[in-house]
């Protein structure tokens, strides 16, 4: 079963560029294969210490996460989201984001958003779940 999500950050109602230094700082230590660059994206295969993995695509204005396995890889995804100051577009179409991003969202997006003080794994599980198996 495939699962995907995307990370976005907004400023003044527009998509904001990602801080690539933050992306490298979070993902480089857990990179499981060679970094691939092409078609405007940088792809990482990441592996957490417990062996759980995910494919991550880095674009100028968003991050895609494909097929994250149950395990500590979810902690890495949440850390990346938090450190980027981003929100998570979950498969239901809801956008989970920090309360501080509310004023930065595009007009009308607030209605489909779930606001939390901080992006945490527990907040993600409440917004995106219930999951049949625990994520970690």
What would your notes on this structure say?
With 136 residues, the protein is of the alpha+beta class. Helix content is 21%, strand content 30%. The chain contains three helices and ten strands. The protein has helices at residues 20-27, 73-84, 121-128, and strands spanning 4-8, 10-11, 14-15, 36-38, 41-47, 53-58, 62-66, 87-89, 95-98, 113-116. The strands form two sheets. The chain has an eight-stranded mixed beta sheet, covered by helices on one side. A two-stranded antiparallel ribbon has the order 2-3. Strand 4 and strand 5 form a beta hairpin. The protein is globular, with a radius of gyration of 14 Å. The mean pLDDT is 91.
Shape: globular
What order do the helices and strands follow? Answer: EEEHEEEEHEEEH
Helix content: 10-25%
Order the strands across the largest sheet as they lie in space. Answer: 4-5-6-7-1-8-9-10
**Separate helix tally:** 3
Distance between the termini: 17 Å
Q: What portion of the residues fall into strands of 2 or more residues?
A: 25-35%
Gyration radius over CA: 14 Å
Mean pLDDT over all positions: 91
Count every beta strand, where a strand is a DSSP E run of 2 or more residues: 10
Largest sheet: 8 strands, mixed
The helix-and-strand class reads alpha+beta
Instruction: Outline the low-pLDDT stretches.
Output: none
């Amino acid at each position: 079963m495939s699962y995907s999500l995307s990370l976005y950050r907004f400023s003044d109602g527009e998509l904001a560029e990602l801080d690539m230094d933050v992306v490298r700082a979070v993902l480089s230590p857990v990179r499981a294969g060679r970094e691939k660059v092409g078609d405007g994206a940088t792809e990482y295969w990441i592996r957490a210490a417990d062996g759980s993995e995910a494919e991550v695509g880095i674009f100028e204005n968003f991050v895609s996460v494909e097929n994250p396995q149950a395990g500590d890889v979810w902690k890495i995804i949440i850390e990346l989201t938090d450190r980027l100051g981003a929100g998570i577009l979950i498969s239901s179409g809801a956008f989970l984001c920090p309360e501080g991003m509310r004023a930065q969202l595009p007009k009308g997006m607030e209605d489909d958003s779930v606001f939390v003080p901080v992006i945490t794994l527990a907040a993600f599980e409440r917004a995106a779940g219930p999951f049949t198996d625990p994520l970690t």
